[in-house]
Design brief:
This protein is of the alpha+beta class. Helix content is 27%, strand content 31%. Strand 6 (149-158) and strand 7 form a beta hairpin.
């Protein structure tokens, strides 16, 4: 497995196919991000590649994981009592984190999160945050296993699903 690398615009279609395959493969599992044909879409992928926020991990030239990392968050984050007091430039927010289903449970997610932590620490970040849509119990379990702490539940409007409850989690990089 190769480490996380910034995606290139020439990989956008391949990344979209990766997400589409993940969506099909998790049907009926405890992983329910409520992704669909509207999200993540090609425009979302290209926009995040152009902003240099989309990362992929490959094995034998095939995408096995994808994640968007930045410090952008919904306005609902602002009124939350986070464990770590941090300015926006001191946080990393994880979005659309996915691993190919045939490698699920093999430690790939943990290894990728380790790379995210290392990179965040090198950039003097204080915390990593994620919001997980209500019902995606698989992702909640995984991030708790990684050491994230549950913070709160808020309603957030997302264009693909409308108004939904999201569970907010945080990983303190200073511990």
């Amino acid at each position: 497995m190769n480490g996380l690398k910034k995606a290139k615009i020439s990989e956008a279609e391949q990344i979209l196919k990766f997400y589409q395959n993940v969506i099909k493969s998790i049907n009926g599992s405890e992983f329910k991000p409520k992704w669909n044909e509207r999200y993540p879409n090609l425009e979302y992928i290209k926009t995040n590649i152009e902003k240099e926020d989309l990362y992929i991990c490959t094995k034998n030239c095939e995408i096995i994981a994808s994640v968007v990392l930045n410090n952008r968050f919904n306005s609902e984050y602002e009124n939350i009592n986070w464990n770590v007091n941090a300015e926006p430039n001191e946080i990393v927010v994880i979005h659309t984190f996915a691993i190919t289903s045939n490698l699920a449970g093999k430690g790939i997610g943990k290894e990728i999160f380790g790379q995210i932590k290392t990179c965040a620490l090198q950039k003097n970040k204080k915390t990593v945050r994620i919001d997980i849509i209500n019902g995606n119990t698989g992702a909640q379990k995984v991030f708790k296993k990684f050491g994230f702490e549950y913070i709160d539940t808020v309603e957030i409007f997302h264009p693909a699903v409308g108004l939904e409850k999201f569970h907010l989690f945080e990983y303190d990089l200073e511990k």
